[in-house]
Amino acid sequence: MKKTITLTVNGEARTLDVEPSDTLLEVLREKLGIKSPKVGCERGDCGSCTVLLDGATVRSCLVLAIEADGHEVTTVEGLSADGPTELQRAFVEHNSFQCGFCAPGVVLSATELLRKNPHPTEDEVKEAISGNLCRCTGYEPIVDAVLDVGGAKRGGRDDG
Amino acid sequence: MTIALEFDYAKPESLDAALRLLTEHRGRAAVLAGGTDLVCWLRDETITPELLIDLKGIPELRELDVDGGTASIGALVTFSDLVASEAVRTALPILWEASRTVACVGIRNRATVVGNICSAVPSCNAGPALLVCEAAVTVLGAEGERRIPIAEWFTGPKSTALGDGEIVTGIVVPVPEGRHGDAYVKLGRYRGEDLAQAVVAVLALPENRYRVAFGAVGPTPSRAPGIESVLAGKPLDETLIAEARGLVRNETAPISDIRASREYRAHMLPIMLERGLRAAAARRDGGGPAYGTALIEEAP
Amino acid sequence: MADFKFVGKPATRIDGLPKVMGAATFVDDIDFGPDLLHAVIVESPHAHALIKGIDTSEAERVPGVVKVVTGKDVPYRFGLYMKDRYILALDRVRFVGEQVAAVIARDLKTALRAAKLVEVSYEPLPPLFDPLDAVREDCCLLHPDLCECERVPWFFPEADTNVAHRRKTRKGDVEKGFEEADIVLEDTYTVPRYAHCAIEPHVVVGLFDHSDRLTLWSASQSPHTQRNVFAESLAPLGLSHQDIRVVTPYVGGGFGGKAGVTMEIIGAALATTVKGHPVKLRWTREQEFRNTYQRQAVVAKLKIGAKRDGTLTAIEHMLYWDAGAYVEYGANVVNAVGLSATGAYRIPNVKIDSLCIYTNLPPGGPYRGFGYSEFHFGLESHMTRIAKELGIDPVEFRRKNAIQEGDTLAYGALMNPSGLTEAIDRAAEAIEWGKKAAPSKPGRVTGKGFSLMWKAPAMPPNAGSAAFLKFSEDGSVNVMVSGMEIGQGYLTVMAQIAAEVLTVPPERIRVETPDTDRNPYEWQTVGSHVTWGCGNAVREAALEARDRMFDVVHRAHGFETETLYLEDEKVKCRTKSDFELALRDFVITGIAMEDGTFRGGPIMGSGAFMPEFTSALSDPETSQGGHPNVHYTVGAAGIVLEIDPATGRVEVVKAALAVDVGQAINPDLVNGQITGGMLQGLATVLYEDMRYDSDGRLLNPNFTDYKIPTAMDVPREMIPIIVEVPQPDGPFGARGVGEHTMIPAAPMVANAVADALGVRITSMPLTAEKIALAVKAKP
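^ Those are the sequences you sent over. The predicted structure of the assembly is below.
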């Protein structure tokens, strides 16, 4: 039961055929070759499949591709098209990521936060990324980078 | 794993069209809103519909309206919509707090409060909050619209009063009259997202009337009439709180599961009730911890 | 402390940008074209059963199915230290989730549907889940042919039992030691299984092409070891190392779970059944929980004696490991612990028995800490208890008994240089040990806990590393190594080491992920050893390249090589201060002579490192006489907890961890290991709780019910402390760190809970529920 859908992906209109049971994650990765959203758990628990759907973070493993018909999807590749954003540069400077598998999801969650709330507190940052599981870093350097972009510093720790 | 199930998909543009599809495919269709539960069920093949009816093409279901004495929450209103609504936060802080405890931002951006009560798992976040607000569920069927009081909505674990061929169009929540204070206390295994192991919702109304509801400690979320009647009209003091705590075991039926033992739930419920009562009463009276504070971490 | 230009500096990770831009490629991201096939595994629902028959006929008939493979088609054993495992179960299954058959189809959905049609008939056998049950006289044997398994010579299986290996360490005379003691404390500590939960699931793609070349792309910590295991296992097909190539891109977290070989052998074997087509096997999150290595559970019986003045006199440590259905890797965890389960202490009389016991649960294997986290829980809890009983401050007790350089280890070799005392002092200071913390919220109580930690890499005595190094025309450098970037920053560290020798800054050095055809050997990226082992190889390669450069300059310009040095990417001369030759000007093209000829050519270097002083041979009854461990990395950690006694909920106010890394090549990355490792360790003691039902089925194979920390669960303050007492045989004095930071978490929490509430909990995890109910039960 293939259906033809058209969605805007990273600014470009894409028309393609999908099965109703194809998830947005599968379609992005396998049909459109966009690899930054990852397969981590396929239950919406880990956040590594996070994309922006009409500007809001969603778990693309829990969205059927057909639901995205007529909508806008942005992934990290779309954010990065003109070079790293200020947030991405902060992540690099702070050595925020280790294995990097959670990074695209975290980047999008933090991007969504900063767009809504340009000067978040430490607790607000932690809440915003609490749906992105990271096993490597202990989260601190990630939080540091986001706070840095917002012009703040994490409390309760000496520098260096 | 990928979804191996095969099914068709429709996106009707009106409620009538949606109802027609539902009737046509009676018993073999599933209604899709946010999908955060449904897509998992499709993957696990807990449900095996032939047709998914996506409601997201019906604009009036998106309406969120807080107007004087009533909040109308359409079937497509997400938990993020509720969290972002200043009107909801001021008029119905219990619902605002309950919404904030759902999973995480990425889930809240899609998950709908109507979907939450339709999935009707015993730990559903919205249940206890809607119960203390004495909300009503608006349902549309072939015979027209009806309102089901929330007290009659949950009929068992994952089971509701929704009839065959009916669609929930929204929830109507009366805004409590007069000064009120709310408290939503959720027990999770840590501060991060978790399905509730126990929920206590308290609404403190004028003249020391209280509404109390429990979640995740019985087959459905439920009110606590015994506790409410003991509290009614009396100022909240140590003795009264102790009495209320003592009644918890009569009005809840926690079980042991992978998330918590019955013993721990039974141990925590009176503590959560006390914290909820104190916070709700204090908030009603102009003080208390800020809404959004995790009362599970805060001893009074 | 020597002043380096690049070593010791918090250089920006060289893989930082690709990872935040979405440009970093993991195995599942690689496209293999429209001919890619997909495999789905049929798993055993039984913990222990004979396979009576497998009917694949219906599955084979599904359109789009290319092949269905069972154990009979690929009846080969595999294993790292012991070959006790089949690629697909042959006649018997030994854990719920064990792979029994594989369906290969044109697309994943078809494979999934067809897999449901494979019919397997089983004859269930009585399962064993408790290691203490599995060592009883009369119980069922899980591996009757245990002693026939090919294995390394330092493993000692016990015939006609479920004991796959027993490591015995005996030093001095424990009976005498206990007699000399003024107090003897005995207790049993229980640690359950844990899951790695790397966010990237295991995945492999295999292609056996029409020239009989087998290539694997896998998410692995060990491409060369994988190739070796594949070659040994698939030798009956006529394949050897030359025919097999393993390509490993970035790995989305390993933590030991992607060491050795687990599901990748299935990919390799399946590829040989569909010649000419690439086939992908990717684990679901449920399979990640069920059918990859798990951290083994252990029941540890501990007896320690001490004199009134706090001097330790004797330790008897009996460890019963639930090692799972196959112990090909996990037996080495048991072995490593058997040699080191004294902890970082000087104890003259030692008796350790570490038993590797088969059970009908998923295979145990390497997990960050390699058995040390598991035994430290009991050992460090016990040390605090003894100190308290003697009325001695637990930190002071540890200072007194801390192992020092030159002390005799349990197996007779000598302890390496280490800053253990400095680590103790600095960790204690960081948490203001000795001062009672005031709770920050009403109703809470506070407690402080302390723990030492140590660990040595557990490797075969001949684990080797190698490196190639070459230049490009722009003077940039490529370092080719086969260590793996699993997040720890290994690529950056190798670049910094090369940078220090060559004076080319790390940002102009590429260190890429390996390919066994093009990159020289690395045993495995495990054991926290690659900074040391591979770092030595890289340094040697850089020195060789430097020597070649100096030789060319000498031949072209006449300067003596001893007068030459490198600075700012140029060759300079101490005796001719105006001479400078930029590397880019000659490292490919050579140096032009006046007569139009050139000297030199492409400059390259190679290096290799393998310790030549380690030996696994020792007395099997006492473990004396060998030198199984290259060196120990040591440290100390302290924690401040706030607990709500009514709810049992714990908040970590402060966690400090000091580790002696010899020389931090990149302090930022060391800090990353400390914060990441500490949080992972805290998660095992506070939240993670693996539960099996009575049929051996895992009840929580998902993140919904196996809770790993989110950003909201981070301690209020984590204090990383770097101690640097150089490792003499390490590159620039460096010693490895990576696993160590998890190790002290559990015992220091248990000690802090005891301090706060007067409640001693001797089993993990210490969840809020367990703490609240323990407080309630206190008389």
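Residues 103-116 of chain A form the longest helix (14 residues). Helices of chain A lie at 24-31, 76-79, 86-93, 103-116, 122-128, 140-149.

Shout if you want it in another format.
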